[in-house]
Please model this.
Amino acid sequence: MEELSQEQQPSAAEIFCGDLDSTSGDDLASIDSLSTVDDDVFSDEPLFVTEQVTNMLSHEKAPEGVKNASYDVNKYMEDREMSPIQERWNAITILPNPFFCMYFILAGLWISQDLKNQFHDVEIIHDSRCIQWEWFPNLVAIPPAPILAVMIGITLHAPFSFLYHWKCASILPPGIRRTTHWSRRMDHSMIHVASTFLSFATSGSWDYFIVNALFSADCIYRQFKKKVRPHVNQIRIGLSLVAYSLPILKRGEFSVFFKCWTILFTAGYFFVRYPVGGWSHSVFHIILAFMPPYLMQVASTLPTSREYMEVAAQCAVLAERAM
Model:
């Protein structure tokens, strides 16, 4: 058979997405990674490649459609592939964040000791805004909205991240189906939801919250489009992190801003580079667990939190006197 001319030869996209009825099942292998191949090549449908394409991907020179010509896709997936036990630890290590936030609020750790000291010598303190819970005696008043926003945002994201990683450990096979599965889409979508709440927690501004909510709504919509674009989605997640950290910088809290971004950059290094192989994602989660205390600190010092903080301090003094 004569060789096909250059114009007659099928493109990489045609090889990926073309009719595979004539290919036997033994010749098919699932595509292991969506993020390593140009986004325009893939959609949500299960994708398969022939042995010819698998060999192309294994060589140093990538086929048409791969962004980096020297990119070794097989090596990339080998470095990032995680075992079921590692995926379970990915799920478990996301839990400290919401538990810390709940404990921080219910234990009254958000109430400033300095403010409590200011009211120790005050004889008459009104208790009309104090609350008494037998189960949570240290929760003597309603926390400021920015502090609640930290807890709500982080707590809303955690179950979906846990679910996605647990599914990867139990029922989801490696490859494209993990990338397009609804649990992964929800995991990433809830990162945007959390970032929206954190934007209010660091700014105390409802207007800023609404702007971030509109951006997050568009990002979530794109997460559920038929065609997955991992690179674009990761950029948008990065922008949402910048958005909720900018108010910290604007207020002149340079030390807290630097600490937050030290945590984010360090966590990002483990997420991108995978220096400890399949355990890198768990380390990524563990490093991020250092963020909530700083976010709580910022939220508690906002001008919009001041009134609630003073009320809580007075209620805490009354509770101490009643003991």
Observations:
- The beta strands are 29-30, 48-49.
